[in-house]
User: What shape does this take?
Amino acid sequence: MIISFYIVAFLYYPWSGDDPTIKVHTTSNFSTFQQCHDRLMENRQNFQDSLLRVYPGVDRFTVRCIDTKTLYDLQQKYGYKNEQRT
Assistant: This one.
């Protein structure tokens, strides 16, 4: 299995409690965590501004680099079907 890393946002709405909405930045995938992390750090403010603009009702969010297996497991846990649009 080939492991890729994606920049993933976990969005929390006032009504959602501790169950996040998962958004995957699918236009970029990375072969190493370090590549993903470097891109995230370079563009962190842009990602944050974009999330607040696109999802104005969000209460709080976290942006992380996640590998494909962990991402799949999280999507299964929270019952999401390929949440990918960001």
Remarks:
- Helices lie at 33-54, 68-78.
